[in-house]
Amino acid sequence: MGASAINIVIGGEAGQGLVTVGEFLSRALVRAGYAIVVTQDYQSRIRGGHNTFAIRADSGPVTAPTEAIDLLVALSAETLDIHKASLTARGLAVADAAVGLGGLPGLAVPYKELSPRPLYENMAALGVLGALLCLDPAWITGLVREKFASKGEAVVAANTAVFQAALAWAAAQQASFACLPPPPRRGKRLMLHGNEAIALGGLAAGVDFCSFYPMTPGTSVIQACIDHADRLGTVCEQAEDEIAALIMALGASYAGARPLVSTSGGGFALMVEGVSLAGMLETPVTIVVAQRPGPATGLPTRTEQADLDLVLHAGHGEFPRAVFAPGTVEQCFHLAHKAVDTAERFQSPVFLLTDQFLADSYRDVAPFDLDALPPVPRPLTDVADPGGYERYAVTDSGVSPRLVPGLCPATVVCDSDEHTPDGHITEDLAVRRTMQDKRMRKAAGLAAAALPPDVHGDPDGATLLACWGSTLGAALEAAECLRQRGEKAAVLHFGQVWPLVPDAFLPVLARAARTVMVEGNGVGQLARLLRRETGAVFDGLVTRYDGLPFTAAYILERL
Amino acid sequence: MVTESDYGEFETAWCPGCGNFSIRQAVVRALVELGLPPHKVVFSSGIGQAAKAPHYIRVNTFNGLHGRSLPAATGIKLANPELTVFAESGDGCSYGEGGNHFLAAIRRNIDITAIVHDNQVYGLTKGQASPTTPKGQITKTQPHGAPSNAFNPVAVAVAMGAGFVARGFAGAIDHLAGLIVAGVRHPGFSLIDVLQPCVSFNKVNTFAWYKQRCYELGDDHDPTDPRAAMERANEWGERIPIGVLWRSDRPAFAAGAVAPLAGRETAMGRLREIVDGYA
After folding, report:
1. In DSSP terms, which residues pair with B118 in a beta bridge?
2. How far apart (Å, rounded) are the C-alpha atoms in residues A24 and A32?
């Protein structure tokens, strides 16, 4: 993060269009070549309240949000009050002239004069921002054309006119603001948030069935699948509840679909019986749990990383599983693909733990190389000996040949009760032992295929910041700040939190001078897991559970 | 040519004299009449003695969790429309634990045939009141009588304009087989509520009790007349009608796959265009 990084915060009431302004500006910045990290903070209400859309942009890489505000775009008077203390020395406020700036430096914009209809005030705001940032107007006018083309040339022209008028007005004010330095020429970048990337990763792995019950912040994964369902032929069904959503996915999986289910902690709590069923039926299913603060309904629209324990232990009885936790939007894509692949390969429930921050965080990423993705195995549609087919044939790997029913003369029998290799209910306790051993043997395969944590920087004699999931960006920036102060610092990031690969990280922990776990919950759930599984004890723990994402400043203050 | 022997013979865990045996017989007879080979049929079931039924017929079987036969069946049908999908379970499973799924299946009108073994008691857990136990009937866990009104599944289904609503009796096997055949042929959700005695735990609604009361609906009943359907659905006491109570031509749920998803490759070209669209 160079000194050139700028943090633009657009704040206002829900329904005022701040997300529209934010998304337009973000996309224009990405197309112009800047790197971005977006943080969306919103209240659990449809209209009113106070929400923000924060864009941290830089001509170099940027990995995490920050608290300090360089450009505060206030759509309501409340926004000015709430955020004025965070304005940097060079910071400017942009507000409606009718509201005033409350004594802050900046521009009081005559929105009523610039925009003939309130509907177009978003375009006026974009015009002012474009001028302040010295952004080539073509990036925004091009987007306006794309966005409104379907509504007709008149709408495009009206929006563009308001944008141009605001641009001209702002330029005439000669507001003193450091323009963004031009970015280096880069190849094409995509702009998408974590949940969109999870959806695309899943679709690239062949996901063709999505069932869900709406719950923030998990829904947008399925929303992205639904957006593309007509083109890809994906079957998407809103179930009557989360219980049905997961069981429906298991039924579909049994019948040969490749399912993706997405929810948040409270919805996942209802799905738990289905997780155990997936373990017993050995039916592949990928479940995205987008974490938010609990217990119970908690803070519905804020972020936390407190469902690791829940996901790790969800389901009665013992059965193998894998849990992934992407740290970036790129990882959301790749780990979603990996999760689906793992579920299919090991015929097990597999989890992807994300959170509200990452779910709603737009980033710029290099285009995904779909051709480089490994192929995901398909279930069998035929077997040589239909009469002798056994769904749960006992194998060394624990993975049995999985046949899809209906496509060949064999029948496929599965049962939530303990069952014989051919799937029929049994109370033969020796068979129970054989089948439980068979299922648990998959744990070895899952461990062998598990991803080791990533080491960023040199851990020798360093302060090692360990983290998982979306905390990665803030930890990387904190480590960079330490290094700039002359301290040795490195980051250990777990993109997969189960099964663990102790050989891959215990030596790293041993080489560090000081180890600190940084995680978005109160008790240090991953730190406890590592201690229980490996005996590793961290020297320090930095936690956050106030509903907001980690920033480098937050971590550095607590080291 | 499909015969009864294609559906196999199995040792069961049912009590001697249980109504489940004759329901199994009716199901197999219906499958033969429909000419369905075992591998084209999937039975999704829940938990309880009735839910074990698919284990005693050679078919594709998804014997899942208590109350969840319908969501599993829905997922199966959505993933492969070429399968003939049944949900089969007891009254506690289908109307108690699975009540929300029952309502959702009627709303969706998905092309599934639900066969509910309705013995008005929980058998496997040894005799507690079920959703269809009449109010006041004494059970082991309701010593002062079942405290709540009985759930009337057929009246609820008729009220919601379900696709196909029938009531059968385990003591009328050929009649029941005919109802199952008609339910499968009906495009949309079909409920077949089957009255059956629980010889171990229901000492009120015995075989003789049903035998005395059940009568077959004749041609004078018009199953497309909502008023008549509701009257028959609510008839319970000295006389209990069995047969097709209600039938509608509501279109079946059509948001599933048009061919088995298992045989489909991902449209990578289209996905590539979609990914590029995020620029």
Report:
1. B195
2. 12
Contacts 24+ apart (CB under 8 A), B105-109: B105/B70, B105/B74, B105/B189, B106/B156, B106/B157, B106/B160, B106/B161, B106/B162, B106/B163, B106/B189, B106/B191, B107/B160, B108/B74, B108/B189, B108/B253, B109/B162, B109/B163, B109/B188, B109/B189, B109/B250, B109/B251, B109/B252, B109/B253
Is the backbone peptide bond immediately before B147 cis, with ω within 30 degrees of 0? no
Alpha carbon separation from B98 to A285, B103, B184, B268 (Å, rounded): 22, 9, 21, 39
DSSP A375: P
- Is the pLDDT score of A169 beyond 90? yes
Length of chain B: 279
Give the closest-approach CA distance of A382 to chain B in angstroms: 11
Mean pLDDT over A313-321 rounds to 98
**Closest residue in B to A408 (Cα–Cα):** B39
Residue A215 has pLDDT above 80, yes or no: yes
Q: Which tokens belong to B231? A: 């009257």
Number of cross-chain residue pairs from A and B with Cβ atoms under 8 Å apart: 206
Tens of pLDDT along B56-103? 999 999 999 999 999 999 999 999 999 999 999 999 999 999 999 999
CB contacts of A146 in chain B (<8 Å) are none
The partner residues of A490 in beta bridges, in order of sequence, read A464
- A49-78 mean pLDDT: 93
State the DSSP code for A210.
Answer: E
3-state secondary structure of A182: coil
Cα A504 to Cα A146, A300, A494, A512, distances in angstroms: 48, 36, 11, 14
- The amino acid that residue A378 corresponds to is R
* Closest partner CB to B59 (pick from A31, A241, A411): A411
Q: Which of residues 409-448 of A touch B (CB under 8 A)?
A: 409-417, 423-425
Please give the Cα distance from B176 to B163 (Å, whole number). Answer: 18
Question: How confident is the prediction for chain A on average, in pLDDT?
Answer: 95
Q: 3-class SS at B157?
A: helix
* pLDDT reported for residue B20: 95
Asked which of A178-192, A305-319, A500-514, B237-251 is least confident by mean pLDDT, the reply is A178-192
Q: How far is residue B199 from each of residues A79, A116, A398, B120, B127, measured CA to CA in Å?
A: 71, 79, 42, 12, 11
| Cβ of residue A258 closer than 8 Å to a chain B Cβ | yes
Q: Contact B150/B225 with Cβ under 8 angstroms?
A: no
Q: Which of A315-324, A404-413, B196-205, B228-237 has the lowest mean pLDDT?
A: B196-205
Residues of A in contact with B6 (CB under 8 A): none
Q: Is the ipTM of this complex over 0.90?
A: yes
Strand partners, B12: none
Whole-Å CA distances, A178 to A3, A163, A449, A541, B52: 12, 21, 49, 38, 73
pLDDT value of position A1? 46
| pLDDT, position A386 | 96
pLDDT attached to residue A178:
66
Report the residue from B42, B74, B272 with minimal CB separation from A248: B74
**Any B CB within 8 A of A386 CB:** yes
8 Å CB contact of A370 and B272? yes
Does residue B188 sit in helix, strand or coil? coil
Mean pLDDT, range A172-187, rounded to an integer: 79
A 203-222 residues with CB < 8 A to B? 203-204, 206, 208-209, 211
Alpha-carbon span B241 to B214, nearest angstrom: 6
Using CA coordinates, name the residue in chain B closest to A209. Answer: B79
Interchain contact, B266 vs A204, CB within 8 Å: yes
Which residues of chain A make contact with B274, given a CB cutoff of 8 A? 200, 203, 228, 231-232
Chain B positions touching A254 (Cβ under 8 A) are 62, 72, 75-76
- Of the candidates B61, B80, B270, the beta carbon closest to that of A256 is on B80
Name the pTM for this structure.
0.97
